[in-house]
Amino acid sequence: MQSHHLTRRTSMRKGRRIGRGGKRGTYSGRGIKGLGARAGGKMRPEERDIIKKIPKLRGYRFVAFRVKPVVVNFDTVAKHFKDGEVVSPASLLERGLVRRVNGRTPVVKILGRGEAKKTIIFKDVQFSKRASAHVTQEKK
């Protein structure tokens, strides 16, 4: 036997370099196309996006997350309460006229629709201009 008759048991040819990393070949667990298949393809941190969405630098005394009051009309209050009863956010919550906001008793604002025929006592509520006129009329 001469040297040119000798052959290797394994070929010299190297396997295809596909996907790099992993032992799966072809896509190497990266799937086909898309962000995850690309080199350096990572998702953006969520916290950064949340911070970017928050309004900033909107002038003096700007309140980014002002709590909006839950509105109830004067005639609705008059319908559900008797003379001399106290109207407060808690009592409105009991009667089902307002709902909890994020598990808390809401800030309530009384609007001026309707007539002031009853004497009702208000506690810890805000008033619109028209509703406050009704309340002052009641006191007279």
TrEMBL record:
Spell out where the chain crosses the membrane: none
The organism's superkingdom is given as Bacteria
Which GO biological process entries does UniProt record here? translation
Kindly state one GO CC term assigned in the UniProt record: cytosolic large ribosomal subunit
Keywords carried by this UniProt record: Ribonucleoprotein, Ribosomal protein
Q: Which Pfam families does this UniProt record tie to the protein?
A: Ribosomal_L27A
Biased-composition ranges, Basic residues, are: 1-23
Q: Where is each Large ribosomal subunit protein uL15/eL18 domain found?
A: 71-136
- Output the InterPro entries linked to this UniProt entry: Ribosomal_uL15/eL18, Ribosomal_uL15/eL18_sf, Ribosomal_uL15_bac-type
State a single Gene Ontology molecular function: structural constituent of ribosome
* Chain spans, region Disordered: 1-44
Q: What PANTHER family does this protein's entry cite?
A: 50S RIBOSOMAL PROTEIN L15, LARGE RIBOSOMAL SUBUNIT PROTEIN UL15M
- Similarity section: Belongs to the universal ribosomal protein uL15 family.
Name of the protein in question: 50S ribosomal protein L15
